[in-house]
Design a protein that fits this description.
mainly beta, Thrombin, subunit H, 6-stranded antiparallel beta barrel, 1 helix
């Protein structure tokens, strides 16, 4: 499969949880992240071809940043090997300028 990413993804040990902006429901934990997208490890698969407004929330604030708000398109979702979890890939499609700076700061810490 051709990799069309413009920015390299970075695996993270930083605990970064993702929540649905509207419902507050936890979607999962970020496994890798770039300026273009991210991959989640979640409790259940998410529907592909869906758009989400998300909050990326570090367990501990990064340089005073307690969350990053963005819009993301769910490109794919696959069940985990244990059948109880899932891996899900997102493309970031909406990121305000101030949120892009916040995301860059978070990326600088992973």
């Amino acid at each position: 499969m051709e990799d069309r990413r413009h920015h390299s993804r970075h695996a993270t040990e930083l605990q970064l949880e993702v929540y649905d902006l509207h419902t507050g429901n936890r979607l999962g934990r970020v496994v890798d992240l770039s300026l273009d997208g991210f991959m989640l490890f979640s409790e259940k698969p998410l529907a592909t071809d869906t758009v989400w407004e998300c909050r990326l929330v570090p367990a501990d604030p990064v340089d005073g940043i307690s969350e990053v708000r963005l819009g993301a398109d769910c490109l794919w979702s696959r069940p985990g090997a244990d059948g109880q979890h899932a891996w899900t890939g997102f493309h970031i499609i909406d990121l305000a300028e101030d949120q892009a700076r916040a995301l860059e700061a978070v990326l600088g810490r992973i």
